Write the structure tokens for this entry.
Amino acid sequence: MLNNQNRVSNQTRTEKDALGEIEVPINAYFGSFTVRAALNFQLSGLTPSTFFKRALALLKLSACQANTELGLLADDKSKAIQQAIDEFIAGKFVDEYSLDYFQAGAGTPLNMNFNEIVANRANEILGGKLGAYDLVHPNNHVNMGQSSNDVIPTAIRLASILYFREQLQPALQKLIESISRKGKEGSGVLKVGRTHLQDAVPMTIEQEFSAWARYIEKSLNFCRKTVSEMYELGIGGTALGSGITTNPNYTKTIIKYLKKNTQIEELFISDNLFEMCQSCDALGAYSSALRMIANDLNKISNDLKILNMGPNAGISELVLPEVEPGSSIMPGKVNPSIVEAVHMVACQVVGNDAAINMGVAAGQLQLNVMTPMILFNLELSSSLLKRTADMMRVYCFDTLELNLATTKSLLENSLVFATALVPYLGYQVVAELVNQALKDKKPIREVALAHNLMTADQIDFVLDPSKVAAPASIDVSLRDKLQTSQNYKDFLVLIGK
């Protein structure tokens, strides 16, 4: 971070904190705390998202407005702080707020980095000098009535809600719609349904696609429920939930501004701020919902790989778009690259969830210090899933082709209609027909006709697409007629029954 300050030459200013003096780039808006954190924690090279920065800024803005209304912050300081926060939201200090995700527990550097930037800019607005903090102080004014222990968990919740509402949820909804649209292209078209990767019973293409759409929809609904758990906030608890240093009316005042600034009307302050300071359960629950979505996308990606398998020696019931050459050695080979990437993302999100679960369980006494790590994994999972949903929609479902000719051929040469014959001919008889069909490599229809167990019209009636892919009433009179016929009795003798 310090090497990327194009506003900074080799000149420095000297700041003094509880640990002593330290040099800070002369024109930097951050201060001593940020410098120490940047020197200490050079781990991943990754920094919080714009959504977290925005959430933190809106939280700080609300705190400033609350403290001003309560008469604790002078108008001139308040206006300068609010202007600095507005500039932060606009992206003015993007290079100056770039500490590593992995850092001191509870995210104190994330909090103080922001406090220093806003304090220095507010001082500058009021005519003061960077690093002086005589007019606006990072702790006394920007952080008034706050602690990293309530600020960071609250900001994580706000960032997660905002990202879900603005990015992830719309992306998943569009994916669901795309899957459903493509499935309707196969409405009424029968295909082989498979269990244990073996031919099972008939289904329609639309039914297969509808299942994919439905379990993403259900996981999305669960995700919405977990998001609602994050509406409960612990801001105002400060260090450990007691609210020390806050005005008695602080919580009811800040929540008013938070709702206005974030446009999240469902927000409320918890009635037990001690619990909120210690527990990250709501974040763990949200992560579990993200894991469920990842599992859904993983299942779909595996199905698409199998159904696309070929092009000539596999199932090839659908054709995924060709997005890139598939091999460095085999000319013309094209791989299911998109769904392979989906599989990788799903594995990563499941791993992220495991890390979050460990973090949620790591609270000690009055605080859980693992929030920066939880933030990193939540943001990574959310953004990966959003982008993956977009990728699947554009490069899979919007553009894949249904290979109806191959689908029909596989269906006609399979034995999936056997189960539909059971209510009329009985399990044992149909099992024998299946065995003979497998041996002779013939459709079960031909075998049944060869033994005169049913007429062609009767088979067409029983195997009508509207009956085999959905519940259908059994024609009892037809069943009794078939099972009392001489041909049926002769067949039972033939198979030793």
About this structure: Residues 3-8 have pLDDT under 50 and may be disordered. The chain has three domains: 2-144, 150-406, 415-494. Residues 415-494 form a domain with the Ribonucleotide Reductase Protein R1; domain 1 fold (CATH 1.10.40.30). The beta strands are 12-17, 20-25, 190-195, 198-204, 232-233, 268-269, 318-319, 401-402.
